[in-house]
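pls design
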C-alpha cells in the first residue's frame, strides 16, 4: 500500500474529478481525500467506481460539523450526506470541524455545543461504520473556524465518544507540543495526518507550503510517528492559492518525492 494520499482541495476550478484522480495515480498515491465538491459533482456511487478502477482508497471525506457556528439543529443534511458518502466510499474518516467561538459565546460554551454536536453525529456515523475525525484548528481561527485548538482540548472533547478520533493537520497543529509524541501517547485516537509544510510571511497568519520547504521538520515528525506505530495514510492537503501559480503537478511530484526520499514512507 502506498501511504501517500492527495486531498482534492488542491484542485483549481475547472479540474475534473477524473483528472484529479489520474494525477494522484500518476505520482503513485494510494489514496485521496475527497471534498463535498467532488461528491456533489460525481455522486458517491460513481466516485466509488472511479476509485476502484484506479486502485485508490479514500483517506478522508471533508468536511462536516461546524457545530459552534450553527443556530439551529446541530446535525444538518450536509452532515448526513458526508456520513453517507463516507460509508459508500469506505473512507478512513469524516473530517469534523468544530466551528468558531463567535462573538456571543465563551470558548467553554462553544466547546459544549461542539460536544453535543459530536455526540449527535457519532450516533449517526457509528451504525454506518464511519469514523469521525475532529480536526484541531490553529488558534488564529478561534473566532471563525475552530474553537477547539489544541490536541489536549481535542482529546478532552472526544473522550468517551465511541467512533471519534482526531485528524491532525500539520498546518493547524505544527506548533502544538503534544504533536511529536501523539502516536506514542494516543495512537488509538489518531485517524489521519494531513500534511503540508508551513511558512509565515506574516507572524499571525501561517500558510501552507509544499512538503519540501518550510518551518516544520516534517521528515523528523514522520519518523517519530512511524516509530510510535502509525501505519495509516499521510494526506497531502494544500489549496490553489497556496500554489502561487505553480502547477498542481509540481506540488504532487514534490509530495511524492518527499515522502519517498526524505520521509522514507511508501
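designed seq:
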Amino acid at each position: 500500500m502506498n501511504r501517500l494520499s492527495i486531498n482534492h482541495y488542491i484542485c483549481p476550478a475547472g479540474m475534473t474529478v477524473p483528472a484529479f484522480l489520474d494525477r494522484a495515480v500518476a505520482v503513485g498515491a494510494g489514496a485521496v481525500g475527497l471534498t463535498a465538491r467532488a461528491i456533489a459533482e460525481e455522486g458517491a456511487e460513481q466516485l466509488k467506481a472511479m476509485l476502484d478502477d484506479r486502485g485508490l482508497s479514500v483517506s478522508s471525506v471533508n468536511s462536516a460539523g461546524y457545530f459552534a457556528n450553527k443556530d439551529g439543529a446541530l446535525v444538518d443534511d450536509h452532515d448526513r450526506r458526508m456520513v453517507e458518502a463516507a460509508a459508500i466510499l469506505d473512507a478512513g474518516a469524516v473530517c469534523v470541524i468544530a466551528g468558531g467561538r463567535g462573538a456571543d459565546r465563551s470558548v467553554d460554551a462553544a466547546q459544549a455545543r461542539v460536544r453535543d454536536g459530536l455526540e449527535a453525529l457519532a450516533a449517526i456515523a457509528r451504525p454506518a461504520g464511519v469514523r469521525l475525525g475532529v480536526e484541531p484548528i490553529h488558534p488564529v481561527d478561534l473566532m471563525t473556524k475552530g474553537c477547539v485548538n489544541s490536541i489536549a482540548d481535542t482529546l478532552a472533547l472526544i473522550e468517551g465518544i465511541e467512533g471519534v478520533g482526531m485528524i491532525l493537520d500539520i498546518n493547524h497543529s505544527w506548533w502544538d507540543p503534544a504533536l511529536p509524541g501523539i502516536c506514542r501517547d494516543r495512537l488509538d485516537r489518531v485517524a489521519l495526518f494531513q500534511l503540508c509544510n508551513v511558512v509565515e510571511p506574516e507572524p499571525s497568519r501561517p500558510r501552507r507550503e509544499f512538503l519540501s520547504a518550510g518551518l516544520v521538520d516534517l521528515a523528523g515528525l514522520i519518523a517519530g510517528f512511524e516509530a510510535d506505530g502509525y501505519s495509516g495514510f499521510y494526506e497531502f492537503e494544500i489549496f490553489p492559492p497556496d500554489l502561487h501559480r505553480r502547477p498542481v503537478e509540481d506540488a504532487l511530484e514534490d509530495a511524492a518525492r518527499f515522502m519517498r526520499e526524505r520521509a522514507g514512507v511508501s
